[in-house]
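Objective 1b of the project was to move from sequence-level analysis to a structural picture of ligand recognition. The entry below was assembled by the postdoctoral researcher (A.K.) and checked by the PI before modelling. It contains the amino acid sequence of the target and the SMILES of the bound compound, zinc ion.
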Amino acid sequence: MRFCGPVMKTRPGICQRKRRFASREECEAVALGAETRLRTYKCALCGQFHLTSRTKGLRPPRGFG
Ligand SMILES: [Zn+2]
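Corresponding predicted holo structure:
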């Protein structure tokens, strides 16, 4: 799967607690519907996608946002 967005190393506890998405499309769909601005990132731990409201340390993907 190709993904040009940010990849983050998540702590195991955080990864388990967070909601997981199998695809970036699904993750972004939820992010778009959220009240707060959420960012999609690929988790280096589980290989799936999470949402975060914290943008610090995340580089915005090119041509996105
Ligand atoms: Zn994860």
